[in-house]
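REQUEST ID: PR-0412
SUBMITTED BY: lab tech R.K.
PRIORITY: routine
TASK: structure prediction, single protein chain
INPUT:
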Amino acid sequence: MNRRQLLLNLCSIAGCAGIAGLLLNQTQSSAPSRQSATGASARFDPLEARKKLQLLESKGFHPREAMYWEKAPGGLIRCTLCPKFCSLRPFERGNCRVRVSLENRLATLVYGRPCSVAIDPIEKKPVFHFLPGSTAFSFATAGCLLACRYCQNWQISQANPEDLDSEDLPPEAAISAAARSGCRSIAYTYTEPTIFYEYMLDTARLAREAGLGNIVISCGYINPEPLAQLTPFLDVMKVDLKGFTQRFYRTVCGGTLDPVLKTLEGLSHTKVLIDVVTLVLPTLNDDMATMEKMFRWLHEKLGPDISLFLSRFHPTFQLRNLPPTPEETVAKLREKAMQIGLRYVYVGNSTGHEGENTYCPNCHKVVIGRVGYQLTENHIVKGVCEFCKTAIPGVWE
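STATUS: complete
OUTPUT:
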């Protein structure tokens, strides 16, 4: 009897088929399936890689030199943009799929080539303390530097750029389109904006000049130097703090926790509004003791006025065998976070829940009411609570 059959039999006896599916899912691959980007993969074929590059160029993608890289021993190119530090042979791509070694330099393949463009309510990001009720011009390119098993946008985040339709949208065109659409901000979102860093940075500079806000929706997996260069142009950075253990990051997300914590600490020393989102997955990251440690860390390192979103999970991608997160689970976690001292704790993916509202921390009245992405009331006037005049952190007008 092999391991798969043993797990199925044991879990069938115990009446826990859902657990069996999760165990099988995790034993089939302890890390996300992806080609090595360390220069050690025996399966790497430079001729095939060159053909894919030619295919990209035929579709309008033109490699552009990347900003953060260095030469490494053995003729390798080492990417220094994110904590994975991929070391690449000629024509080999990084773990993100969109950064490639061109013999003596590193190039990005997706500059100005988004695969997804939309106009979204800013509440969808979710961002609750920046221009509520406005819209954000949102875009993303293919690829991602993590491989979360529950990614809701896995069709584009886990794809190569040549496998998706894309459009030509350089920074100047993105700003013009946002202005024509009446959007008040640009959102770099859907996949992981770090992978299209140069495109994001150039767009953010132009957006700032045009009076538009800049919102980055990120997993926080970025090195300190590129983060420091980007933050002067940002208004909000929403960071997915996916869990609070190394094991969760390693087995479910294909990364590590420490770089994300460093990003959050780095942001705490800037003027950027910080939003933190944790998608609560049943049995995987919903342990109350661990979550309490996370809440205390956030309160100590980032302060009481950050926005924390505790969002319900719905089965998707490689974790379709898990049940949706019970509403009572996120409600209890929200209560614990507020007991610890976090003032603005929200519930996500639960339309109509009281945790969608913003409450004044002093008089406890609703200052912004929400149902889904819609505002139902707004009692913040010139940055303060209309009822008791307490300042509410954010950008409201």
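NOTES: Residues 46-108 form one domain.
REVIEWED BY: pending
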